[in-house]
Structure formats: C-alpha cells, structure tokens
Amino acid sequence: MIYSLDKINEMAEGDQDFINSVVSVFLEEVPQDLEALEIAIKQKDFSNIYQLAHKIKPNVDLLGMEQTRATALEIETLGKSKATISEITEKFPLLKKDIHQVISELKKDFPVS
User: Fold this and answer.
1) Which residues are reported to carry the modification Phosphohistidine (predicted)?
2) In a domain? residue 1
3) For 61-76, what is each residue's pLDDT tens digit?
C-alpha cells in the first residue's frame, strides 16, 4: 500500500464520513487534474503545469504519499521556472503511475456505497 490514512484519521477524529468524503474528493478530482496536467505538458503550457501540479500536491500529501508529493513538487517547481519540458516529461510518468496505483487501491478499500 503506497498511501496512508494517518493524516486523515488525525484530522477526522473518528469521523468515518469525513474520511469517506476526503477519499471521494480525491477519486473525483485528482484523476481529472492528472489528465489536465498531461495535456498541459503536451502543450508545453508551463503556467497550467505549475497550477495543476500545485493542486495535486496537497491531495497526495493528505494520503501520506511522500514520494508522490515530492514528484508533484518537482513538476510544480519546473513548471514555475519554465524549465525544459524534457525534465517535466521525465518525471510525469512516475507521478501518473503512483496516482493510478493509489486510485486503484482506494477503489478497492473504499467501495462506492
């Protein structure tokens, strides 16, 4: 398992509805943001690359995905500094793989009721 509910559990203080809500928002928003980020990278749209990586970062952080958060931060920084697109395209597959793996795990662990 590459995610952890420790931060969410701490915030939720036993409120399972809150936990379910956070997971639901993650499953709804992050795949869309990831897809938009991939498009922004293909279009070399540095402003959107920065904004989307910035938006993804706290969501993966909330799930204790430290490595994924670090990758999102790198992409965010590269987007902001308008680095070479090759550096961003090199890092994006790792972000995408980790997020897709977590989405798959979350769907198994939190079946839609």
Assistant:
1) 54
2) no
3) 999 999 999 999 999 9
State the Cα angle at 72 between 33 and 36, rounded to 5°: 20
Determine if the pTM surpasses 0.85.
yes
Tally of structural domains, the chain: 1
- The dihedral of CA 34, 39, 43, 47: what is its sign? negative
**CATH number of the domain bearing residue 33:** 1.20.120
Alpha helices in the chain (DSSP H): 6-12, 16-42, 46-62, 66-80, 85-109
Judge whether 33 and 94 are in contact, CB under 8 Å: no
| Burial class of residue 64, CB neighbours in 10 A (0-12, 13-18, 19+) | middle
Phi, psi (5° rounding) for residue 5? -95, 10
Average pLDDT over residues 36-43: 97
